[in-house]
Amino acid sequence: MISFVTRRALAAFAALVFANVASAQDYPKRPINMIVPFAAGGTSDVIARAVAEQMGIALGQTIVIENVAGAGGSTALARASRAEPDGYTIAIGNAGTNAATYTIYPKLSFTPDSFVPIAMVAKTFGIIALRKDFPAKDLKEFIAYAKANPGKINLGHAGLGSSNYLICKSFVTAAGIDATLIGYRGAAPALTDAVGGQIDGVCDAAASVSQSINDKLVKGLVVGSTVRLATLPDLPTSAEAGLPEFEAQGWNGLFAPKGTPQAVIAKLNAAARTAVETEAVKNRFADLSTVAPDADEHAPDVLQKLVTRDVEKYRKMLADDANK
């Protein structure tokens, strides 16, 4: 016989389940907050804004962008992890914020299990760009210059643990050079300093640096891709430039706090799928040399596998950077 206490517990559980289902059915009833872990103008921000606008249309609610820069994205992810798991706070992340950060900042208040994946929304390509008056016309000359001047070249990135930092790290490792990597509170301020000549160059994604290269505000050195980008047809791939070891193809995905109802995740996933298939996002991504996921890459478990893979990958690559 079921005790009175057990019956009350079961009733309470059933009521909770019913409330969650009912809540998911009429979700969303108000605007959704999307946390971007970097300053406005950077790759994650540009992608987030394009996707959020179309997701909002699909959901019938506005998605408000909130830029929370700091600590390579971990400040934003800490905030997102503490949010109410009701679907009204989500975050965009990448291999830096949601994988490498656990090695670089081992005492974080959150773990990979603090989030549930919603969907991958973009695939990106890393570029090394230099101030326009840098004394090297191609990658071979740049590497020769760097080796002749160890420690004197400085490259900006969006903060320790960011995807741009990973581009920098992969590049200097592949090139075998000693360069100073300077962290900023986002990709945009780093690019601003490169344009102004305050630093020698930036490690950035095509999404945020392509226009500056085309406008000749900085000069592109190499793209860590297997094929040239349509928006930068004159920029050589790493293999063409003589450094095939440099690979910089990344991803951006949406996450929600652990405990967010699966029915809500399903609605957000469907909206994300719809968003990246719209002409508006396709055209924006084309301008940014960014690619939407393939049809079989939209599922939350695909994003989860990327996180699991990259946590281990960067644990090995970045062990020396922990606690810096």
UniProtKB/TrEMBL annotation:
<dbReference type="Pfam" id="PF03401">
    <property type="entry name" value="TctC"/>
</dbReference>
<keyword id="KW-0732">Signal</keyword>
<protein>
    <submittedName>
        <fullName>Tripartite-type tricarboxylate transporter receptor subunit TctC</fullName>
    </submittedName>
</protein>
<comment type="similarity">
    <text>Belongs to the UPF0065 (bug) family.</text>
</comment>
<keyword id="KW-0675">Receptor</keyword>
<dbReference type="InterPro" id="IPR005064">
    <property type="entry name" value="BUG"/>
</dbReference>
<feature type="signal peptide">
    <location>
        <begin position="1"/>
        <end position="24"/>
    </location>
</feature>
<dbReference type="InterPro" id="IPR042100">
    <property type="entry name" value="Bug_dom1"/>
</dbReference>
